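Notes from the 1:1 (GR / supervisor)

We went over the backlog. Supervisor wanted to see one worked example end to end before approving the batch request, so GR pasted a single chain during the call. The sequence is below; no edits were made to it. Supervisor asked that the structure be written out right there so they could see what the output format looks like.
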Amino acid sequence: MAHFEEIGGNFPVVLGMNSEVVNSEDTADLNQYFSSGRSAILATIMHSRAQGKKVALPYFTCHSVIEPFVRMGCEIKFYPIQKDLKVQEDLIIQFCQVEQPYLFFYHDYFGLNEELKWSKIFDVCSGQQLFVNDKTHSFFSASTHSIAHYTLMSIRKWGGISEGGCLQINGMKGLDIQYDIRPDNDFRMEIYNKASELKREFLQGDPSINKEQFRSLFYQSESFFDSETGIYPIRLEALQQWRALLRSPFAQRRKLNLDLLVQGWNPDWEGWGIPIFMNNRDVVPLYFPILLKIQRSLLQSFLASHGVYAPIIWPKSILITQEGDDIFYNQLLCIPIDQRYGEKDMSRILSLFEAFDKMMKG
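Structure output shown during the call:
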């Protein structure tokens, strides 16, 4: 029996590609490629000479963003995020004028395209601060050209890509960056590929494989990224996976899936949750995020019991010592709507929302 009823979880990669290491001059675009988004952040810190200086980071962010700045001795100031995850220009401008950070780092959350608002902020502040735009979530919703001084992203979030991050500097092609040599025990590619092979066979119905076999391998692969301390080049295999993804109709499928959930969403369900994207349907979404009004684990456990695995993308980092509003860390749940799934899967998710609503109302 096949296991296609499972929604969510790690992407299996496309296997059988070249695994050599590649440098930026081997690429066909203006990006410089690295092994991860964390490596791209480290390269940004080094190139911008931000070591030891004051930097501004959003209060809602991931550990992998914060850690390189901590390691490079930066003084970190966290700025607050609005409840709808959108930019409030006046508050950002005021923050920059008061705190005077050397470097200001920001996300375009979940595919929201806020470039017009950032344009206003840049007009006021860009003479005093360097701006870094993390477009991991918004790369396919916005123009690939950012007006920020530095633009970076982790490419692994969008499909079956075993590693990768990229960086682009406004008005510059190529970086004078000295790559570090990978540790001899860096087996992330081999482990990820093995996990992908097992998951693919599991989904095809192989009864000899259980979920824990590939889940533990995916976890081991992630541990390499969590412990990464250098600036490493991307392997050619991962770059080929990325380029194969760009040639596929994945963005259209994600938009269609978003439309299906937006159209099928019942306002009566807003007693327990508010979708972020109800009025932002022009995005290419990474997920379908819901800000919950109830204990998050109630919905997450209910969906998991029916084979839908909704991730918590960013647990709050232990590196955040500043006080702030933890609502997104505690109440945000992300529904998978990526290119692996279609209309039938979105209908199933909506049916589960309806069943959950009935259960909550007793």
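Supervisor's comment: The chain has eleven helices and ten strands.
Batch request approved.
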